[in-house]
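Q: I'm writing up a methods section and want to include an example of the input and output format. Could you take the sequence below and give the corresponding predicted structure tokens, formatted cleanly so I can copy it straight into the document?
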Amino acid sequence: MVKPSIFSKEYERKMRRRKRNLIILVIACLLAIALAAIYVRGAFKDVVNGTDKIKSSISTENKNVKNNDENKKTSSIDKSKSADKNTQKGKNYKIELSDGKSVNLVYQGDGNDKKYKSVTPGDGSVAYDISPSAKNVVLFDSKSQSMLLVDINGNKQDVTNTQYVSTSGSVITKDAQIAANPSYIWCSSPKFLDDNNIAYISQLPWIGKTSKYVWIENIQSKNHIMVQNIQGEDIKFQGLTEKGLTVIEDGVAVYVNASGSVTQ
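A: Here is the clean output for your methods example:
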């Protein structure tokens, strides 16, 4: 085949066609590159978004787990506090004293299983003692110098000896003696010797002396007897032992039992 001359019309037509084809090819390549770039960018963005969603989901799940744990702990603490409040509220007797103070006798159990557990306030402002069986509490009302016995059902009775009859037959009443001498100790510091007997300190049977003595009251018969072998200017009670109630008599420890016997 004869090659066309560069001066012929056929040559010019072929060159224009080749140029046009080259331009179309370049444009097609550019379009392909642009489409590929758009696709890759979109896919990358989807991957990033997917990763962010996964991270967000994990973070949310961790927060939910943490919140659930905190809620469970808070709920448990609240329930415990509520139970304690309910127990304290429903398991005590409130006793009013003559000076306006009140004490709460806290007990546990129900029915025949009830037992005293403590007395509040327990800061020493009110003297008290719980019986060995935890079925009774004795309180000392310091303003009126009264011993108050409260049984396990909350029944209160004043077990103070309201008068003393001397061997000569003279009668001395508590109210009259305290009115005449407010510093006189008619009774103080009651302590259980056993479930039926309470020991207390008094200046009786003497009126003009400062010596103190130990008396015992049987809460069933209401009889009061003086312990013969204890006398001192300073008498204090401590705890119960196998020997009996520990009594510190002018610095010396002795022991007294429910029958009034004294040992060292």
